[in-house]
Amino acid sequence: MKPIMRCFDIAVSLFFLLFTVPLMLVVSILIVITSGRPIFYVSRRIGKNGREFIHVKFRTMRAGKELGRVFFEQERITKIGRVLRALHVDELPEFFSVLSGKMAIVGPRPLPARLLSGLDAVTRAQVPPGLTCLAQVSLMRHGRLTKRLQVKLDNRFAAKRSFSYNVQILAATFSAFRNGKKPDLAPDATADRRRFLKADFRT
């Protein structure tokens, strides 16, 4: 990883943690009160060069069989979990993974190995996973994203990755979050975003 990108990741993570640690304490208490323990959802995800790492988020679901796609698991999401997901607060613990070097601020979202099976994810694996990337912006703006398209967008990012490109994607993420477009999580939300594949990234 280029030193400037690593310094950027550390600086952004420390900035957000400085203001969100009190919020994380409140969220932890609310999860225990409303849905009990555990507070965190801990899983194994694929990181840079295909290495697995422990991924931690706030728990937003009740126990049950994991199907790998959120729109198949709507009945398992808790009431507070819906709020945490809508505000992306469930992802705050990931800043600690960024500080440890397991993740980056901008990079492909970390996925379980089973969801990458049969897909061309070699280029994607050359960069560390992150909090947001092209595929995340696509989901936030348009609400629909297939697994295959997600990997294609991740591969595109990995091939074009640079500090300025990371800043562009981060700015686009904040823009999409500010607009507050709610993702469409219908089971049939599987149409490829071909226009994203035909055009270069635009903020």
Descriptive keywords:
mainly alpha; two-stranded parallel sheet; 10% strand; 8 helices; 4 strands; two-stranded antiparallel ribbon; 203 residues; globular; 48% helix; single chain; disordered C terminus
Give the biggest beta sheet.
Answer: 2 strands, antiparallel
Helices, by number, come to 8
What's the total number of strands?
Answer: 4
Pick out the low-confidence regions.
182-203
Mean pLDDT: 82
Based on Cα principal axes, name the global outline: globular
Using only C-alpha atoms, the radius of gyration works out to: 16 Å
Q: Pairing-aware structural class of the strands and helices?
A: mainly alpha
* SSE succession: HEEHHEHEHHHH
Give an overview of the whole structure.
The protein has 203 residues and is mainly alpha-helical. The chain has one domain (3-198). Helix content is 48%, strand content 10%. The protein has eight helices and four strands. It has helices spanning 3-35, 79-86, 94-100, 113-116, 134-142, 147-160, 163-179, 194-198; strands at residues 40-46, 52-58, 104-106, 130-132. A two-stranded antiparallel ribbon has the order 1-2. The protein has a two-stranded parallel sheet with strand order 3-4. Helix 1 (3-35) packs antiparallel against helix 3 (94-100) and helix 5 (134-142) packs parallel to helix 7 (163-179). The longest helix has 33 residues, at 3-35. The radius of gyration is 16 Å and the shape is globular. The two termini are 24 Å apart.
